[in-house]
Description:
Blueprint: H1 3-15, H2 17-27, H3 35-46, E1 51-54, H4 61-71, E2 76-80, H5 88-91, E3 92-97, E4 102-107, E5 114-118, H6 125-128, H7 132-137, E6 139-142, E7 145-148, E8 154-159, H8 172-176, E9 180-183, H9 189-199, H10 213-223, H11 230-244, E10 257-259, H12 263-279, H13 287-298, E11 303-304, H14 306-310, H15 315-325
Parallel strand pairs: 1-8, 1-9, 2-5, 5-8
Antiparallel strand pairs: 3-4, 6-7, 10-11
Helix pairs in contact: 3-12, 11-12, 12-13, 13-15
Amino acid sequence: MSSVEIEQVGALAQSHQPKLQKMFSEVKKILVGQDDMLLKLTVALLCRSHVLLEGVPGLAKTLTINTLANAVGCDFNRIQFTPDLLPADIVGTRIYNAATNEFNVKKGPVFANLLLADEINRAPAKVQSALLEAMQEKQVTIGNETFILDEPFLVMATQNPIETEGTYALPEAQLDRFMLKVKVSYPSKKEEMTIVDRQTSGIVTKIDPVVKPADILQMQVDCDKVFIEENIKKYILELVFATRSPGEYGLDLGYLIEYGASPRASIYLTMGAKALAFIQGRGYVTPDDVKRIAMDVLRHRVLLTYEADAEDMTSEKVISRILSTIYVP
């Protein structure tokens, strides 16, 4: 791509800045702090992908996705995952109509633009897997009929890291479908004071749809055009391959890593870096864009050994070692 073409893509990204800023401002009428969570949700939305949020209850995970859906004028549905949930409760089912002697399809809550899968690890694997086709293929099969889901389509799943009783760990195949795994932290004292003031004032804040779904779809198309040079692509591959063969990069991590990141990691690192550049109004990717998104892309794709547990090593610590070792172009 020539410098002129890169400038043209940059101008495209700049043209979307007013709408993106309006969207962020509208969401922040309700949301206090959690800027990183909002940014990563926007990245996933631009990349046509999905997000897994991990954090204790009460950190505004549900509020964020609901508010974002209102700000972009999208349909929003929420599913509370429980042990007695059935796949049909998510995708829908066929119901017999005695009057017409036919089966009619009743669509489930997955038919929405933004779907919140709340506490996804509280339902067994067969229920979790009901989302797989929707997340990967953007379609749902009920009986012998297949329905294409409306775009944009984003699944945001949440899980509570402090409770294990009555939960079912997400299978690796399911985890790999999520572009990002974002850890949500507590707000600062100042932010929490603002939260308390807003929630106890009795004032209801209305969120207006400042962006249309069609705008999001156009942003997705333009985001794909962001330029990423060959050296940065190679840097992404080095990061991913270092999770598979750390010894080749002078990293003594081989006994800690059971499985390295899949090729989806390389794809999502590239897409995520492009989205970050686009959100900042740039037509090209920098290594900092890659580093900024790397932890969220890799933390659920690097599986550790029992030795790592014994040494109190986490995937974040392993990824940090890799990021600090691999040469940045």
